[in-house]
Amino acid sequence: MFSYTECDQYYITARKVAKKLVDAGHEVTIIAVRGAYNTQISKEEYCDGYKIVRLDSSIATLMRIGLLSYISKIVLRKRLDGQDNERISIVSVAILISNALFDWAYNLFLSVDSKVVNVTHRFEKRIGIRLPRWARSTLNWHVRMFSIGLYGIFVVIRKITRVVLSGLVYLFSLLHRYVLNPILPNFLYVDYYLHAARVTKHEHFQAYHAHDLITLPVGWWCRLTRRAKLVYDMHELWLERAEKKVRPGRKYWMMRWEKFLIRRTDKTMVPGYSIAKEVAKRYKVPEPVVLLNVPEYREYTPSSLFRDDLKIPEGKKIVLYAGIINILRGIEEMVQSMKYLPDYCLVIFGPMYYSDYITKLHELIRENKVEDRVYFHGPVAFNEVSKYAMSADVGLALHKNLGLNYYYVSPNKLFEYMGAGLPVVASNFPDVKRFVEGCNFGVTCDPDNPREIADAIRYVLADNNRYEMMRQNAIKAAKEFNWENESKKLLAIYDSFVVK
Length: 500
Description:
Layout: H1 12-23, E1 29-33, E2 44-47, E3 50-55, H2 60-76, H3 90-127, H4 133-201, E4 207-211, H5 212-226, E5 229-233, H6 248-262, E6 267-270, H7 273-283, E7 289-290, H8 305-310, E8 317-322, H9 331-337, E9 344-349, H10 355-367, E10 374-377, H11 385-389, E11 394-397, H12 404-407, H13 412-419, E12 424-427, H14 430-439, E13 442-445, H15 450-462, H16 464-478, H17 483-497
Helix pairs in contact: 2-4, 3-4, 4-5, 9-15, 13-16
């Protein structure tokens, strides 16, 4: 099983697939990666009967270049004269550096000039003779001419420095944009492919499982050279992700590459019905197996974990967002909706990887004057998420429409809310509406409209009978949409071509 992640305790996607296969009697090894600067995580790990092998990159030099590239990117985005969100031009960076050098040299000259004048006064004092005015004027004139000459030299040096530094910064920015950015990730992928192929060479695997497009090439190579089966676990439309913009020309060739690979797999799995239709249409292949990203089933047991941990007053209804905290999840609109809901509080529950975005959220919270009603809670172990979610009153799944990958999304948090017995307010996208309205355990709305979000939350919680009906529908639906049921599709695939 190939997974281009660290496959730690918070990345459950590959782990739960491996565990289910192990429980069914298969032997499973996950080939993952270890971050270049994360040496604390072990290279080998045995967990729940399966083995995780984490590969180190052998191209540390490129990683160091990547770090320099990142530093240059930060330098080019520094703010100038207090103007926020304004990118400094390359020439501006060079001017800043040259001005600093000029100021240092000119200040040094002024200190030398004052010392020359002091030496003149001390010379007069020592010989006991005061120089005539004409002699003093002549000496001062020569000193001033010397100063003007040095000043001219410094001006020339500054202009030369500007030109040289402008060129260097420009060349480095070109290196960052056209060489390091596009090539470095590809080298890392190729390095992973070579290491993964070498690790699997000495073991006889009957099937290979590739998570996402990144690992599909090495899966295809192993299938080709070792006459084994290949399963492509497509977690999303990789080329339609908003966080990884792909230029049109490159996207065209990558789609051709994915089309070539996907036609040479034995089975393809996707996480949603709309994505399955899109893949079949785009690559002219049979419709893939839909394997929903759902959690394990847990009995509904109400709790008060959020109220206890965050000291939330009893009279406040808890509106929950659970998941990664980034700009793609509609969290800003959630915060803005709170100003229309004075009797509700919002709990943002998940890992806070992006410190700049967290800072921006705090500023937005202050602007909307909802500091006392928006809470942040860090991540917990995956098997504890449902227990915490059961202490909320309504769940939010408001992905923004930033491309097909998000428009066709079937978010796992939707099923986590379902398992926790939470009525939901979700984006009005096709697959989301299929579950929310089909199972009648919430409502959908425009994820870009804070007022509409507030109205939807109010609608869900306004009527106790309606709320209780939605909660019971969620609990009922969770008995159908859970990993115990969904994993039967996974086992059927492997049972069809793998001998235990």
